[in-house]
Design a protein that fits this description.
This protein has 721 residues and is mainly beta. Helices cover 8% and strands 63% of the residues.
Length: 721
């Protein structure tokens, strides 16, 4: 920890010294040089609003050499675990891109965001208290991309080479054309990367005192091209229409090797060596046609979106096992397809002369998903094989219709008291099952999700705000799939046809001091949840999402400040928080033997310096202290992530060259223990997110951008989209 903090402290001190030393040189620069380094007013890097924290990165040095996924990892309040699950303040989130709900989750979301260059980012909004307008499952992260609308052709191309355990390359282009009332944007990318991950697992079953130890090393290669197109036409000064098309593809190849040792009651039972060859191919196509009416004088907005999303994933996974018994072979093939059709309508207008604003709208979603599964290999016919009695094939299906209506009313009283009251109603009707096994589940339910926001401004320097949200987290469709498949670490995994949704309540209190210091407290409560658990089924250890009843209470205190120094050249944002989780009732009802009370610290710091020595050199450093505790899984370590980068800008030629150092002082790793009624499962994972990265960027045309149109409620209080 001290090893990391010391160079960052030295870096900050040297920046201050450099600024003082070069002050005299500024006077000597000629007119052209002064014009090249002119500083303009800009938003603070981090803005703390009532319901959200906004990470303004459009002009930040943090963008150079990074993808959107990398910047998301550096965003305040955001953490990403070893399974690539994105969380805000420790809670699972729903990700939006330009106010459109992303079709991706987990590793698919990671691969997609890696194809979006960070240079396209305007800001990232971490909405911890979303309004009723959102299809919320907790917190929301809205990734806002730049919108260029000046005349003519403009764009950029970037080339990146990243060296960690293996070498990876990344390139992208961004083209924008605007002429009078028509705007066309193309974004394309190609990612070719190789990654290595090492895992050690310890599987302990209580009943038989069975222990399985494995060491796994997996090398994977991904090729991910993508292309998106946005066409927009202004019918007049109030009416716009447009079409968004997105295509993403990922081809993956991986090879893994594992060595395992199995024992019962302290006696060695079996030693084995496994290899795993995996081939995967996924593609996603999204379409969105939109119409927008915006009357700036009357602050009326009508936004209509209709679209489709298709996602397909083909996967072939072959395992060969050798041990004290004869060799075994098993392959698993799955071909999942997801189809989504939706219609969304949002309307905003002022109410009377009192200054109130009403938002109403609704959405209907139709989803049709299937996953055919089949197993093959010579061990399927061997009665002595552990693979013998596995189901050979089945077809999993999931269909649902989710309809929702919402209303928000916002009003300011006495010029000091801001309020927002919202209510959302959601109704889901779904069917899930397997064709061959004949298992099926049909269900439907409706739920009301209220929210409340109150902010009181004592003066220009002091304010306090309070928000309340009720939200519901529904299982992802693939988590229902009960088909059993093997893994290289000696375990198996399947879904759970009978998963239940997880409702929760959150209360959030925030104090603002001098517009620079913020202190917040959060309380979250739930009476049920579903988390990954491990069970013994026919002698096998199976990973499965399980329903858990029992009260869980989470408490959170956080302090944050954003400061600018040296004529806004040096920006520092620091946040630090304390987490406390009460799992006592949860553990007693489920008898999983976990920790009743968990307490830990976490935080992050972003430091950036613009125009070092007046030579168009930008520096940035980021650090995060993270501890991952989720439900019945507890962290055994605290990670310290860090990133340092330097960027040289060439204004006349519109080129940039940057170098980035990632986790160079200590490679990050995950060490967690998952508790279940049947035993414990400990996983140690060493990540490949470290090394050095070099990026070259060439721009052309006018790079001026503008904010997306939003109402005053959205700009000042968060409120809306």
């Amino acid at each position: 920890m001290k090893v990391i903090l010391f160079p960052i402290a030295v870096l900050t001190g040297s920046l201050a010294f450099a600024q003082a030393q070069t002050a005299k040189d500024t006077v000597k620069t000629n007119a052209k040089e002064i014009e090249a380094v002119t500083l303009v007013a800009r938003k603070p890097t981090v803005e703390s609003k009532v319901d959200r924290t906004v990470f303004n990165v459009a002009n930040s040095a943090i963008l150079a050499g990074n993808t959107t996924w990398d910047v998301l990892r550096m965003t305040p309040l955001v953490s990403i675990d070893n399974n690539d699950a994105v969380k805000a303040e420790g809670q699972t989130v729903t990700v939006y891109i330009n106010d459109r709900k992303s079709v991706f989750t987990g590793k698919e979301l990671k691969e997609y965001l890696k194809t979006i260059p960070a240079d396209n980012l305007m800001k990232i909004e971490v909405i911890t208290s979303p309004s009723s307008r959102y299809e919320t499952s907790g917190s929301v992260i809205n990734i806002v991309l730049k919108k260029r609308d000046d005349e003519g052709m403009k764009g950029s191309i970037s080339l990146n080479n990243r060296q960690s355990t293996k070498n990876s390359q990344y390139t992208n282009f961004n083209l924008n054309y605007h002429k009078k009332k028509f705007t066309q944007t193309f974004i394309g990318s190609y990612n070719n990367g190789s990654y290595v991950q090492k895992n050690e697992t310890l599987d302990t079953r209580y009943k038989t005192n069975r222990i399985n130890k494995t060491s796994v090393e997996t090398e994977s290669r991904n090729e991910s091209p993508s292309l998106s197109s946005t066409s927009e036409f202004e019918l007049n000064d109030k009416n716009n229409i447009g079409l968004v098309l997105e295509y993403f593809q990922n081809r993956s190849l991986s090879f893994g090797e594992s060595d395992g040792r199995l024992s019962e009651d302290g006696k060695p039972d079996n030693f084995y060596h496994q290899t795993q060859n995996t081939w995967g191919f996924s593609r996603t196509l999204g379409t969105n046609f939109f119409y927008k009416y915006y009357d700036k004088e009357k602050s009326k907005i009508l936004d209509i979106n209709i679209g489709t999303n298709y996602s397909g994933y083909d996967n072939d996974n072959l395992i060969n096992k050798q041990g004290s018994s004869k060799p075994e072979e098993l392959g698993a093939i799955s071909n999942s397809q997801m189809r989504n059709y939706y219609l969304k309508v949002d309307y905003t207008q002022p109410i009377g002369k009192s200054g109130g604003t009403l938002e109403v709208g609704g959405k209907t979603d139709f989803n049709n998903n299937i996953i055919p599964n089949s197993l093959y290999g010579f061990s399927m016919n061997d009665v002595k094989s552990e693979y013998y009695n596995l189901a050979r094939n089945d077809r999993f299906y999931y269909e649902d219709n989710i309809s929702s209506l919402y209303a928000n009313y916002s009003k300011t009283f006495f010029k000091k008291l801001e309020t927002r009251v919202g209510l959302r109603y959601e109704y889901i009707d779904y069917k899930v099952g397997q064709d061959v096994a004949g298992t099926q589940r049909k269900d439907s339910y409706g739920t009301f999700l209220p929210n409340l926001l109150v902010k009181y401004t004592f003066s220009d320097k002091y304010d306090v705000s309070l928000t309340y949200n009720r939200s519901i987290w529904r299982p992802w469709y693939s988590e229902f799939n009960p088909f059993l498949v093997p893994d290289i670490n000696g375990t198996y995994s399947r879904g759970n046809l009978y998963l239940n949704p997880n409702p929760n309540d959150r209360l959030y209190l925030k104090f603002g001091i001098l517009k620079k210091y913020f202190i917040s407290a959060r309380y979250m409560h739930t009476n049920q949840d579903y988390w990954t658990t491990y069970a013994t089924e026919n002698g096998r250890t199976v990973s499965v999402p399980g329903n858990f009843d029992g009260k869980v209470e989470k408490y959170y205190l956080f302090a944050n400040t954003n400061q600018n120094f040296m004529k806004n050249k040096l920006n520092v944002n620091v946040g630090f928080g304390w987490y406390y989780i009460n799992n006592k009732d949860f553990n007693e009802k489920n008898q999983i033997g976990g920790k009743d009370y968990i307490s830990y610290w976490g935080g992050s710091a972003n430091v950036s310096y613009t125009n070092l020595f007046n030579k168009n050199i930008n520096l940035s450093a980021w650090m995060e202290i993270a501890n991952q505790n989720n439900g019945n899984s507890y962290a055994n370590n605290t990670n310290v992530f860090h990133n340092i980068s330097v960027t040289k800008i060439f204004p006349k030629t519109q080129m940039e060259l940057s170098m980035q150092l990632m986790n160079i002082f200590k490679r990050p790793y995950s060490d967690t223990t998952t508790y279940s009624q049947d035993g414990t499962f400990r996983d140690y994972s060493k990540w490949d997110w470290y090394g050095v990265s070099l990026t070259f960027v060439k721009r052309f045309g006018n790079q001026k951008v503008k904010e997306n149109t939003k109402t005053d409620v959205e700009k000042n209080s968060g409120g809306g989209k």
